[in-house]
Amino acid sequence: MRITQQLRDEWVVTQPSAKGKAYFGKLTDIKVNAALFPDIALFKPWGVLVVKNFTMTFPVANFRKIEP
Known about the structure:
Elements: E1 3-7, E2 10-14, E3 17-24, E4 49-57, E5 62-65
Antiparallel strand pairs: 1-2, 2-5, 3-4
C-alpha cells in the first residue's frame, strides 16, 4: 500500500508494511474520553477485527515537488 500526502508544495510518498494475525472479535464494552476523541459509544459496530502481534513499519518518505 502506498500513502501519498501533500505538504505545502511537495508530495510526500511512503509505502508502509504491516503484518499480524487477524480474526473476528466481539466488542462488549467501550469507554471514550470525549475530550480527546468523538464519542462513538452510542454506535453499534458493524464488525470487529482483533489483530495479534501487529507490527507496522513506515520507511523514510520520499519528497517530490508538485509540478504545476
